[in-house]
Design a protein that fits this description.
5-stranded mixed beta sheet; 5-stranded antiparallel beta sheet; alpha+beta; about 270 residues; 8 helices; Phosphoribosyl-aminoimidazole Synthetase, Chain A, domain 2; 60s Ribosomal Protein L30, Chain: A
Amino acid sequence: MNLENYFISQFKSEHVGDDGAFIDGTVYSKDAFFEDIHFKRGWMSHYQIATKAMMVNISDAIAMNAKPKYALLSVALPKNTTKSQAKELACGFGECASKFNVEIIGGDTIANVKLDITVTIISKTQKPLLRRGLKHGHLIAYSGDLGRSAKDLKKLMNLGKIHKKSKFVNIKLRDKFIHQNRRFLSSGMDISDGLFSDLGKLSSTNRVGFRFYKKIPKNIGCSGEEYEMLFGFDKRYKRTLLKRAKLSRTPINIIGECVRKNYKNMCKAHHF
């Protein structure tokens, strides 16, 4: 057990364990977006930083089939931040939030040596999509393409440049697909730590292993910060989901099925 999982295990609440905490029709979720941990200021504009910080948090709501309603921001600003940069941050937060009909209702700002951001999202749902729900024989799939986020991060780490539409900067969420197909899905989460790592979470939660239909390369399986959807469903819904995915222009990749075996994550941990 790594330090992150050990720390989380100290809290015994029944609501811990999903992308957010579902309580009486409301989902509460929160993620951090810290300079020199998740990004460097030289890589992105302040507008892009704020937009991505908001998107990775809205992703948790979407992953649970929840409609994000409100946001609370905590922003630690370096003392050399200019008014122009502060305005860029505010515009990034505000414009991204408005696209999902989210109202920013408060938060906190402090002075700091780095630009550190945390966002709390409050969402509503009557049919949450949880990580638990997988059964032996269920199929496992993910949306979109994986691997480009890690590839572009490597470019940035080597002082290279990436396209302005790179997934590392511009996240695409699968809200329509999830909302329209919730009744066919048995389990789901967003891919933030990487496909292999997040499969490990589903494996642990549901006590299942996976039989993959073909080998998945590590550059795809270990690429974090993809924010595509990872989900499971009964085999009888396969044809229906493939057809409905086309209607929402959502590419989906069925990679295997749940079986009675142990699962081992082959990727290096992203945390600690």
